[in-house]
Structure formats: structure tokens, C-alpha cells
Amino acid sequence: MDRNTATIGRVQAVVQGSDGKIRLITPFGGVLGFGSRLVAVPAEVVTLVGHFVAATDMDRAAFEKAPSWYGSDAERTLAPDEVTRIGLSRR
User: Fold this and answer.
1) Are 55 and 45 in contact (CB under 8 A)?
2) The dihedral of CA 40, 48, 10, 7: what is its sign?
């Protein structure tokens, strides 16, 4: 969800780049899931709001400008039992 409480997409994967930064991979755009593309959202711009992940420091325009994510050999997908910290927020 973004600042306007619009659902952007479900997190499909959590990856760590060679730079050590964590990114959440989520679909963006399209209609009803068709025509969407994957984008990598930096973990530092999101917070948890209930059971949603909110992009509190990344507006819709930034999502539209974000490059499509295709994966990279320099990234690794975090295992389901690995822990990463994301801030909590309240609306």
C-alpha cells in the first residue's frame, strides 16, 4: 500500500543485493494482475501497517519510474526462516 492506502502489490520475494541492502520484490501496474511488472522496493522505505507493507517513503510516481526487476546473480533470495527488520507504523 502507498501513502494513499492503495494496495500496490504482494511481496513476491525478499532479496539481498551484493551491496547488502534488502529489497522487497513486488508487482506494480497492470489491471487485476495482468500487465504488471516486478519492481525492487528498498526495505528502508517501507513499514508494517497491520498485515500490510506500506511504502511510506516511496510514492506512486517513484514506483512508475522504478526499473523492472529481473533478478541478478549478485542478489540472493532470503530464505523463509531468515529475519530482516522493518519498521512499524500506525495510520
Assistant:
1) yes
2) negative
What does the pLDDT profile of the chain (91 residues) look like in tens digits? 555 555 566 888 899 988 888 999 988 887 776 888 999 999 888 887 777 778 888 888 888 898 899 988 888 998 888 888 777 666 5
Closest CA to 45 of 13, 23, 76, 65: 23
Quick one: which H or E segment has residue 14? strand 13-16
- Of 19, 20, 66, 60, which is closest to residue 41 (Cα–Cα)? 66
Q: How many residues does the chain have?
A: 91
- Sign for the pseudo-dihedral over CA of 80, 9, 38, 23: negative
Q: What is the pTM of this model?
A: 0.78
Q: What's the N-to-C CA distance of the chain in angstroms?
A: 12
The amino acid that residue 28 corresponds to is: F
